[in-house]
Write a structure and sequence with these properties.
Layout: H1 2-21, E1 25-31, E2 37-43, E3 46-52, E4 58-63, E5 69-73, E6 83-92, E7 97-108, E8 113-119, E9 122-128, E10 132-138, E11 150-154, E12 171-176, E13 179-184, E14 200-204, E15 212-216, E16 224-227, E17 230-235, E18 248-253, E19 257-258, E20 264-267, E21 270-273, E22 294-296, E23 302-308, E24 319-324, E25 337-341, E26 347-351, E27 367-372, E28 377-382, E29 387-393
Parallel strand pairs: 15-19
Antiparallel strand pairs: 1-2, 3-29, 4-5, 5-6, 6-7, 8-9, 9-10, 10-11, 12-13, 13-14, 14-15, 16-17, 17-18, 18-22, 20-21, 23-24, 24-25, 25-26, 27-28, 28-29
Length: 395
């Protein structure tokens, strides 16, 4: 066993040392149409540009079967039905920006994520709203839905407000091997739910049938993605346990597992029993949760992520980049960056500078999602200023 572990530990030690010293961040000036001028930091040899702006609350990216870039727009942080699905079109390589933004669908209830599904040559677009999951037929080049929606699932559409650590209005979705995977957040900061679907990840057929629970105890898993036949999520921990507890997570999901909330939480590679629920009667499926691959500082709010593969720069290739949305309380100075997850369980900032003070007027963006576009570039969505950023490696 020692002969196996020693080379692995040596590799992790060497990689960790190299990853901390082999690159540096440099400032790049950004100017928005509202006259805001500030600097963001990216790795040396990279540039950043405003690919689109003037959106309301852009959230998660999705690439269509015909290679176009779609994104959801939740309008604002209220519980509303003004959300949209947008198409970012007419890319200009000279200006590094989209010349046209088309509204594919509007009047949506907090649309957080969409996903395309293809079967026997037919294409479908699934839209996850707070209270339901629906799909539309999709044809290449569509600028609006080519069919009426078909609703295949419904979800609770209410919860305590942000003030009380709830109001988890987002529903996230991914599709893999002809199955849909959906996450539903909790209704509260920390409580024993009355509705089984809360704080869970479920699987269903493309028509909504054969629903089953894949994972429970996920307080708010907003990011969800299949990577190399493995299901990964980001998950946000509860409040009111101090400035550093519990940590938040990027972790691989094992079907049938329980991930802690509200009975346990994750902190520094330990599982800690939450004292508020230590004497609570627990459902039969509650068990001690596994340790996450990555623990993220409390209140950082990890959302979207991407696994970079086939990327031309070994600095980022074969690694996760995760968008840290940041705490609603700016004074906490947490998150507000895109970070790279390192193999030793640590992470480092790759795109930063969104937060430059302890007041909201010093927050110049809140990263929401990351999408690798090709072998040299990626996009970042900012749902605070309604901006899409394009980051690319120079020659």
């Amino acid at each position: 066993m020692k002969s196996i572990l020693l080379p692995i530990l040596l590799f992790l030690f060497i990689f960790s040392g190299q990853s901390q010293s082999s690159f540096k961040l440099v400032k790049r000036e950004v100017q928005l149409k509202n006259k805001a001028v500030f600097s963001l930091q990216v790795p040396e040899g990279y540039q950043i540009a405003v690919a689109a702006e003037g959106l309301n609350r852009p959230r998660f990216f999705c690439v269509s079967p015909d290679g176009r870039l779609f994104i959801t727009d939740m309008f604002d942080r209220s519980d509303n039905k003004k959300g949209k699905v947008l198409i970012l079109e007419n890319w200009s390589d000279s200006s590094k920006s989209f010349q046209k933004i088309t509204t594919y669908r509007d009047g949506l209830h907090n649309p957080n994520q969409i996903a395309f599904y293809s079967n026997n040559g037919d294409h479908y677009l699934y839209i996850a709203e707070t209270g339901k999951l629906s799909y539309y037929r999709y044809s290449n080049g569509d600028l609006k839905p080519s069919s009426a929606p078909t609703t295949i699932a419904s979800f609770p559409d209410y919860g305590l407000s942000y003030k009380y650590g709830g109001w988890h209005l987002t529903r996230s979705i991914d599709i893999h091997n002809n199955k849909l995977y959906v996450t539903v957040g909790s209704s509260c900061d920390a409580c024993i739910e009355k509705e089984e679907i809360r704080a869970s990840l479920v699987e269903m057929d493309p028509d909504g049938k054969n629903l089953k629970y894949i994972a429970r105890g996920l307080r708010n898993a907003v990011g969800i993605k299949w990577v190399k036949d493995e299901l990964w999520v980001t998950n946000m921990g509860r409040d009111n346990r101090g400035p550093d507890k519990p940590e938040e997570q990027l972790m691989k999901i094992t079907a049938g597992s329980f991930y802690g909330w509200p009975y346990y939480f994750h902190y520094r590679k330990q599982i800690i029993t939450d004292p508020a629920f230590k004497d609570s009667v627990k459902p039969a499926w509650v068990k001690r949760p596994p340790i996450s691959q990555w623990g993220i500082k409390a209140h950082s709010a990890p959302l979207g992520f991407a696994y970079f593969t086939g990327f031309s720069d070994s600095l980022l290739n074969n690694s996760f980049l995760t968008a840290l949305h940041g705490s609603t309380s700016v004074w906490r100075q947490r998150g507000n960056a895109v970070v790279q997850m390192l193999p030793n369980g640590q992470y480092r900032e790759i795109v930063t500078g969104f937060l430059q003070g302890k007041t909201e007027d010093k927050r110049f963006g809140r990263p929401c999602d990351v999408l690798q576009w090709n072998e040299r570039s990626f996009f970042i969505s900012d749902d605070k200023n309604g901006v899409i950023y394009y980051v690319w490696k120079e020659n």
